[in-house]
Amino acid sequence: MIARIGKNPWRLLLAINAAIIVGVLIHKIRLPPYVPYIHLLVDYHFGFIKRALIGAIVALFTAKVPVWLVFALGGVTWLVTLGLYAKLFQKTFGFTAGTLPLFVFTAGSPFFLKNFMHTLGHFDIYGCALAIVLLLMPARSLLFVATAALFSIILVLIHHIHLLMYVPTIITIVVIRHYLTYGSSRSNIAFGAVALLIVSALFFAAQFLGTMPILEADFVAHLKTRMADPSRTDLLQFAYIWYQPLAKEVADTWGRLPHNILGVPVFALLIWLHTPLWRFFASLIGALASELHRRLVVAALTGISLAYLVMFAMVFDYSRWISNWAVCMFLILHAVKMLPAKRETLPIPSEDRTTNIFGLILTLIPRVGIIRPF
Predict the structure, then answer these.
(1) 293 contacts 180 by C-beta, under 8 angstroms
(2) Is 227 in a helix, a strand, or coil?
């Protein structure tokens, strides 16, 4: 098989990725959607609470929520994200024989679309999709900054952990595409600062004021009224997360740490397998025309990574966090490519044996997982 791949590797690897995604989907729809389903049931019936925006939107269209809606809504969101990323890649790099390895290492990474298929129905993908929209839309005016603020507000209302997961990436995209590209003035800096304060205040409101104001038994009773099949009480077993304080979440995470930390070498290996991509990314940064731009990009990547370290200390879904961190790196790569460069960056080599082997291994890995690797 390796000999066959050596003749025409990258088109074949894309086809293999597509087949694996179909397999992951078939496997996923056979599993009970515990966490995604309950998020479609929770709304603002009892006032402002955290993690309720998606359920509130669903409530506008249907009083009873069928289980299949998890897969329908998640599937449409996944397809939209795929389409958006394909358009972004076309805009940034173009689809040629020379850019196919880059597309395989990003779109075909087990961190990205394949893992989003495995976590179908979870909220992570919304942050990715909205960040891609910001990479595609014009960025000259303050409307761009306002749109980014609106997207951040939506994400925090979907789940407040987005403040650490995708909001730092959105901020980086705004800085690169608006402030570094079109310049900074007192007015647009003040506008951005106010927007950031609003998003941060909303996060603290959701985190500390967004707990459910009624007894859990009454909450569960309300959720049953929204279920198309109220007998599926097994799908309500995660209702406690609307009552769990931050201290309890942190305590649970650290209690699981000795076991979950065993997955870190696997994550490190998966990151290492992306070495051709990271080298290309480093070359893009090194080729930037401005030293200030290079320093700010490195600082932004450090800040995004630190936000994910905080998430690792707070919530134990490690496979999801490391996967979304990698996706944020992929998206920032596109943003960096949009900055002025002093020289052209050579693409990932398409005939290098090591690159081919790494691309094959990443292609064959179906997903990273939710908590522990695989």
Answers:
(1) yes
(2) strand
- Tens digit of pLDDT for each residue in 318-345? 999 999 999 999 999 999 999 999 999 9
Tell me what pLDDT residue 156 has.
Answer: 97
Interatomic CA distance for residues 135 and 331, integer angstroms: 8
Residue 358 contacts by C-beta under 8 Å, 6 or more apart in sequence? Answer: 273, 274, 275, 276
Tell me how far apart the alpha carbons of residues 131 and 48 are, in angstroms, rounded to a whole number: 26
Q: Where are the beta strands (DSSP E) in 172-306?
A: none
Other beta carbons within 10 angstroms of residue 267's beta carbon come to 19
State how far the Cα of 175 lies from the Cα of 185, in Å rounded to an integer: 13
User: Which residues 6+ apart lie within 8 Å of 19 measured at CB?
Assistant: none
Res. 8: pLDDT tops 70:
no
Number of separate helices (H) and strands (E) present in the chain: 20, 0
* Close Cβ partners of 347 (under 8 Å, ≥ 6 residues apart): 93, 98, 99, 101, 102, 280
Instruction: Enter the tokens of residue 145.
Output: 């900054």
Please, are residues 113 and 367 in contact by the beta-carbon 8 Å criterion? no
The predicted model gives 90-113 an average pLDDT of 96
The pair of structure tokens assigned to 219 is: 């909450």
Burial 83-115 (b: 16+ CB within 10 A, else e): ebbeebbeebbeeeeebbbbbbbbbbbbbbbbb
Distance CA 48, CA 86 (A): 37
Structure tokens at 240: 């406690």
Cα 255 from Cα 262, distance rounded (Å) = 14
